[in-house]
């Protein structure tokens, strides 16, 4: 008898689907949370005798076990038990020290690995499964989604597969995929699925727009973090928030009901798996997670609770445009104004009329500093015009100029 204990996300369920295609009724599949796996494995070890079940095989995919269970598994294998753990998270690489551990982050051809893609290769290499076009396509879609490569390569079908997974009950999704992989040459969505996926796409867009107005910003340790409460669409939400707010080092998504925190980043210089490890979690460099412990709750929920959400930049401006060398106006909390302009090949930032004691090499660098340190947002045109009028009147009265000397204010006012 074969046993598979896997994660309860798309990649974990993908392992279960191809396992059932390989072994049929000869495999018992159980899906687990990260922490639920340890209890599941402990029960298996307690009730399974190597002498009574010498041919039983335990597969563990897309999850790693706690240190105490790790030791028990090794003893079980040394006594003759059969175990194969297959994972792709770099936080589990130490399990390669055991003969039963196979943790691979990157395939030989350079593609980022997923548990489903690794398990698929394993089943084929050991003669349990034959390669097929439909299976290849399904496994690749799972891999693309789980590694976030679908965004880079614009493989929308991978995202839609995950959407369908969350729209259906696990048993229904599993049975649909198994039947399709067994009976069809290629992988596809049927007409009904395409329709409900189109409807789901609209729902996701509305959900993300709402959450954009709820995200807050704070520093946790050395990182500037965006924090948002959300129960659904974590990958899509984090991707959009990371693109809209690139000055944030990473996005922390808190699911209070599930007591989980997901960490996502779009930056190469930030490894969220290292951050997750600090709080007892793990994962990938760009996508990780952990349980909301008392420490996590204090840092990411209680301490920043009173903060106001990030204000969105003005989006319909004609005059106050980012990157304009003559000057761009930003607002901050407490009616503070920050004005950034180019001078002698550098960018100067004035805070309430006083220049900061340092300059920036580019507009993007200046904006990043302002957004991280002052929480600024791009002013609307009417606020920008009002500021120019006031400045123009002060200059007419021979007061101290606050705008760069090369700015032709009179001409700018005429243009507007």
Instruction: Report the CATH topology name of the largest domain.
Output: Rossmann fold
* Helix content percent band: 40-55%
Number of strands: 16
Tally of helical runs: 15
Return the CATH class of the largest domain: Alpha Beta
The pLDDT mean sits at: 91
Largest sheet: 6 strands, mixed
Structural class: alpha/beta
Relative strand content: 15-25%
Q: What is the topology, as strand order, of the major beta sheet?
A: 6-7-8-9-11-10
Based on the coordinates given, report the CATH architecture of the largest domain. 3-Layer(aba) Sandwich
Radius of gyration from the alpha-carbon trace, in angstroms: 27 Å
User: Unreliable segments (pLDDT under 50, ≥5 consecutive)?
Assistant: none
**Terminal residue distance:** 78 Å
Structurally, how many domains make up the residues? 3
Shape: elongated
Describe this structure in words.
With 416 residues, the chain is of the alpha/beta class. It is built from 15 helices and 16 strands. It has helices at residues 10-23, 36-47, 67-78, 115-125, 133-146, 149-153, 156-167, 170-183, 191-212, 234-244, 272-278, 294-302, 363-374, 381-396, 409-415; strands at residues 2-7, 27-32, 57-61, 82-87, 101-103, 216-220, 223-229, 250-255, 260-264, 282-283, 287-291, 328-331, 337-343, 346-351, 354-355, 377-378. Helix 1 (10-23) packs across helix 8 and helix 2 runs parallel beside helix 3 (67-78). The protein is elongated and about 95 Å long. It starts with a strand and ends with a helix. The model has no long low-confidence stretch (mean pLDDT 91). Residues 406-416 have a biased composition (Acidic residues).
């Amino acid at each position: 008898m074969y046993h598979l204990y896997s994660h309860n996300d798309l990649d974990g369920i993908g392992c279960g689907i191809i396992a059932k295609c390989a072994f049929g009724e000869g495999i018992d599949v159980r899906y687990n949370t990260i922490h639920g796996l340890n209890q599941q494995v402990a029960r298996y070890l307690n009730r399974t005798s190597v002498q009574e079940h010498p041919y039983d095989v335990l597969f563990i995919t897309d999850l790693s076990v706690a240190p105490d269970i790790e030791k028990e598994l090794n003893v079980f294998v040394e006594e003759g038990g059969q175990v194969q753990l297959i994972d792709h998270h770099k936080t589990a690489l130490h399990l390669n020290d055991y003969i039963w551990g196979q943790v691979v982050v990157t395939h030989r051809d350079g593609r980022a690995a997923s548990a489903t893609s690794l398990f698929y290769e394993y089943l084929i290499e050991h003669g349990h499964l034959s390669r097929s076009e439909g299976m290849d396509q399904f496994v690749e879609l799972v891999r693309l989604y789980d590694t976030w490569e679908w965004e880079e390569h614009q493989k929308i079908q991978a995202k839609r597969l995950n959407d369908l997974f969350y729209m259906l009950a696990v048993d229904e999704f599993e049975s649909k995929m198994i039947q399709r992989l067994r009976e069809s040459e290629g992988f596809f969505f049927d007409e009904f699925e395409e329709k409900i996926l189109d409807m789901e796409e609209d729902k996701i867009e509305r959900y993300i727009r709402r959450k954009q107005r709820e995200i807050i910003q704070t520093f946790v340790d050395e990182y500037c973090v965006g924090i948002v409460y959300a129960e659904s669409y974590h990958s899509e939400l984090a991707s959009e928030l990371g693109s809209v707010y690139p000055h944030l080092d990473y996005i922390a998504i808190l699911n209070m009901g599930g007591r989980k925190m997901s960490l996502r980043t779009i930056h190469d210089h930030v490894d969220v798996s290292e951050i997750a490890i600090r709080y007892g979690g793990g994962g990938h460099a760009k996508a990780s997670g952990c349980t909301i412990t008392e420490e996590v709750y204090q840092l990411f929920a209680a301490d920043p609770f009173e903060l106001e959400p990030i204000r969105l930049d003005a989006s319909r401006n004609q005059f106050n445009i980012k990157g304009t060398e003559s000057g761009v106006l930003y607002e901050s909390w407490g009616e503070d104004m920050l004005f950034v302009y180019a001078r002698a090949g550098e960018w100067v930032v004035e805070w309430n009329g006083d220049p900061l004691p340092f300059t920036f090499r580019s507009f993007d660098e200046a904006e990043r500093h302002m957004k991280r340190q002052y929480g600024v947002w791009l002013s609307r045109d009417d606020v920008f015009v009002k500021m120019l009028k006031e400045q123009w009147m002060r200059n007419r009265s021979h007061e101290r100029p606050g705008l760069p000397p090369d700015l032709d204010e009179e001409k700018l006012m005429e243009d507007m």
